[in-house]
Amino acid sequence: MSTLNKKPNLDNLQDLSASLQLIRMKRKQRDEVERGILLQQLSSICTYVILVVISLSVLLPFIWLVSASLKDEFQYFAVPMRWFPQPILWSNYSEIFTEYNFLHYILNSLWIALTAVFISTLSSALIAYGFARFRFPGRTALFIVVLATMMMPTQMQTIPLYILFRQLGWVDTFLPLLVPQLFGSALNIFLFRQFFIVLPRELDEAAKIDGSGSLRIFWAIILPQSRSVLVVVALFTFLASWQDTLRPLIYLSSDANRTVPLGLLFFDNPVHSVDPQLMAATLVALAIPVILYTLGQRSIDSGVTRLKRT
Questions:
Q1: Residues 56-84: tens digit of each pLDDT
Q2: What is the number of other CB atoms lying within 10 angstroms of the CB of residue 201?
């Protein structure tokens, strides 16, 4: 009888031990999950703190620029520096247009940049269309030569081009800044070619069956399919032309032909300091590319994404 009574007790002990082990395992798993969640939260907090610090360090010069553009010259040179101008001088912005002819410089830059965008984008797309859609001997070697021109320093071309444009009588005109755009840009050609290669050739074949020529296929089929890369190339070209200082400094000598970078470079007044007005002009010069990027941000993001996929 005693042995029969012991067996159930042993079985109960084993069940109890197994239950305790299961509870310990569940508690351990729960602790590990809670520890993982805590570490993830701490990691997220540290990441956000680092990003906030980096963002503030990037925004700090811009905040100072806005503050300096609203000061007078005494507040501008005050020690210690004053972040909040008292009083706020909005007249600094009106002065750059009324006294320093800055609006004329903006119009010159817009004219040059928009014309360069049209010419360079169209010519680069045509050249890239030839590389992407036509097969001819030496195509790969010629494309490598085009890409190799990106490694050629701009300063290396300055003297020969200046001699050529001077002989043509183009110095102090916009032609030296626009005519080279007819030959396209190596970077733009590369971007267009990589995008055109991905487009199915069945579109070209179907258009040829309908009697379309190569130029009509390019204009009616290829370009409408390439809106995203067109926006990206147009933005790159606009920014390169808008912030170009070297070439306008070499070819444009008269005040009537100055662009925004030259206007900022020669922004001066022989009577008093114009540093606050210079900060205001710099802020206006920065505003136009920022506005353009904001308006075309969605197309730019989609274009960059599709270019990465190629």
A1: 888 888 888 888 888 888 887 877 877 88
A2: 10
Token pair of 200 as six digits = 């199915």
| Cα–Cα dist 174/267, whole Å | 21
Q: For residue 279, what are the contacts with CB-CB under 8 A and spacing of at least 6?
A: 65, 68, 69, 92
Q: What is the pTM of this model?
A: 0.79
Q: Which of 282, 253, 128, 115 is nearest to 194 (CA)?
A: 128
For residue 61, the tally of other CB atoms under 10 A from its CB is 9
DSSP secondary structure code for residue 220 in this structure: I
3-state SS track over 47-69? HHHHHHHHHHHHHHHHHHHHHHC
Fold type of domain 92-309: MetI-like fold (1.10.3720)
Residues 117, 121, 122: CA angle, nearest 5 degrees: 120
Please give the Cα distance from 105 to 255 (Å, whole number).
Answer: 9
C-alpha of 212 from chain center = 36
With the CA atoms of 22, 25, 27 and 29 taken in that order, what torsion angle do they form, in degrees rounded to the nearest 10? -140
Is residue 106 a contact partner of residue 289, using CB atoms and an 8 Å limit?
no
pLDDT digits (tens, 9 = 90+) for 91-115: 888 888 888 888 999 999 999 999 9
Map out the domains of the chain as residue ranges. 2-53, 92-309
- DSSP state at residue 228: H
DSSP state of 225: G
